[in-house]
Structures are given as structure tokens and as C-alpha cells.
Amino acid sequence: PPTSNAADWRRSVLGHLDASGEFSPIHAHIASGIVSTSNTAPTSPSNATADGAPRSFATGNPALSSPRGFRGLGRRLAFFSTDAKQFPVNKQKFIPQTGTYPLGFSAGGSHCGVKKNGKPDLAVLFSDRPTTASAVFTTNQFCAAPVQFDRQVINDARQANKKMVRAVIVNSGCANAVTGKQGLLDAQEMAKTGDQLVSKLDGKTYTGGTLVMSTGVIGQALPMNKISQGVANIHVGSEHDMWMRAAIAHMTTDTFPKLLSREVTIGQGKVRMAGITKGAGMIHPNMATLLGT
Predict the structure, then answer these.
(1) Is 176:144 a contact under the CB 8 Å cutoff?
(2) Contact 179, 145 (CB under 8 A)
(3) Residue 177 contacts residue 219 (beta carbons within 8 Å)
């Protein structure tokens, strides 16, 4: 558990070196921490609050104590920053520093291992209740497995006249396109992991309520073991920082994350909207390769 002793706290975060000099499996209490192949690691007790509790490295806020906040997916520590300064200077003006997000919706992002460079590659959008979902799909007749799967989910909900969708699972780095029958099986498995996440967050079983999206390299199968583990361990929240994590995890060749939120007045009430998209030069033909949630 967190401690006021900086050395003990650092050991609790870093674990300990085994006989081979590698880090052994570790646990921590950092909501924004993930593990990848980077050499970056916390080295200062300034990363702790006055009572010794770890801070969120992106926001400076005390981190949640749930071990779900730390992803044991590798042996070296890397912290997923949402700081706009990491992106090109001429793009920073397009990156929101705050947001107003729809009530009942949460988001999150992490690195699960789809991208070999250690960059964020998994995003989740979650609703605390069933929603009415709508989608615009590519007109390409040779569409990827996630498109085929999502069309079926939305059509089934429409025909049953039910609100069904609870989550959207997005991975970047692999498009699950031109992958044949295995691609469809992987899309189904990816949705199943989303249903399992919803069930865990709800405390009761929920099925058939997850949409999936994949973007990246075509012709390669999804590493489903990594995605399944990533979804099972991902942390979601309603804060702006968590939505920004999801936006960053959408990115492939993008030079900056694309996230917007608004609150508007319609009649006597207020409505909140939020949107994430990715794509660089991908609006033609007819937005065929653009991804948005």
C-alpha cells in the first residue's frame, strides 16, 4: 500500500530486481500508469502526495487506489502522458485542455501491445446504461470485419427496437481488414471482452452490447490475447484526462489527438456532446478510412 516513506513507495511501484537483473511482476496504485518497453520510470518522491499516495502523472491528482489502474503488461515502466506539449507546437491549439462530457459516459485509453513502439493503442467508451446507437459506415463493398460486425449489432438492436449498446472498444495499430473469417471471429471476441468489462463494472452479466473499431495496418490478425488482457485491465473515468487518453489511443499517423465536447441548449434543456476521431488525409472517398466515435 502507499506509504509516506519515499524509498518504500518507490519499491512498491517498481517492484524488485530478480537474479537476472530484470524487474519481477509488480503491482501499484497509479491510475494513469501503464507498462511498455520504454525506459521511463518515476524517480522522485515528488510524484507522491503529502500522505505518500501516488499522483496521477498526467493530472497531478491523487490516483485511485484500485490495482486496475496499473497495467502489468511488461517489465519496464512508461507513463502515458496527455500533455499537449508532446505534440507539434502548431497543433497544440487544436487540443482541448478541458471538456464538458455527457453524464453517464466514461472513457479511457492504454497501451496493450498492438503497437510495437509502446504508444497507446486501446480505447474504451462506456455508458452506464443501454443506449440507442447509430453509425455511418463506408460504402466500400470490401469492408473490414469490425464494420461487418457493427452493422449486425446495430441492425439487430434496431429490429428489436431496443437500446442495447453499452461500450465501444477501439484498437489502433491493426485494422483487422483483409483478414477473412478469422477477422470476423476476432471482432466477435473483441466485443465479448467489452461485454465482460461492462459486466464487471455493472456487477451483473451483460451481453450483446459492445461495438468494435480497429484502425492501422491491414492484412494482419489482431493480437487478441493482448487486446483481451488490455480491456480487462483498462481504467475508465469521466474526467477530461480520461477522454483525452481515449483520443490519443485512437491515433495512428495523426500528429495530434482529435477530441471535442460541447454543451448546448435545446428547448428548455441542455445537451452535452463529445466526439473523438482519427485520420490524417483520410476523408476521401466519402470518409471511407476515417474513424470516429
Answers:
(1) yes
(2) yes
(3) yes
Nearest to 227 by CA among 202, 199, 201, 197: 197
CB 107 within 8 A of CB 246: yes
Mean pLDDT, the chain, rounded, equals 78
Enter the C-alpha cell of residue 70: 496499473
Please report the DSSP string for 89-104 in residue order. GGGGGGS-S-----TT
Q: Where are the alpha helices (DSSP H) in 107-179?
A: 145-160
Can you read off the three cell numbers belonging to residue 57? 502523472
Its pTM stands at 0.74
Report the percent of the chain where pLDDT is more than 70: 71
DSSP-derived secondary structure letter, 195: H
Catalytic site includes residue 265: no
- pLDDT for residue 10 is more than 90: no
Q: Indicate the pLDDT class of residue 274, thresholds 50, 70 and 90.
A: very high
Which residue in 82, 179, 252, 289 is the catalytic one? 289
DSSP state of 56: P
State phi, psi for 82 to the nearest 5 degrees.
-110, 10
155 burial level (CB within 10 Å; 0-12, 13-18, 19+): exposed
Burial degree of 39 (CB within 10 A; 0-12, 13-18, 19+): exposed
Tell me the CA end-to-end span of the chain in Å, nearest whole number. 37
Question: What are 174-218's pLDDT values in tens digits?
Answer: 999 999 999 999 999 999 999 999 999 999 999 999 999 999 999
The residues facing 126 across adjacent strands are 106, 167
Query: How far apart, in Å, are the Cα atoms of 254 and each of 46, 114, 121, 161?
Result: 33, 17, 13, 37
Question: Would you report the helix, strand and coil content of the chain in percent, each value rounded to 5?
Answer: 30, 25, 45
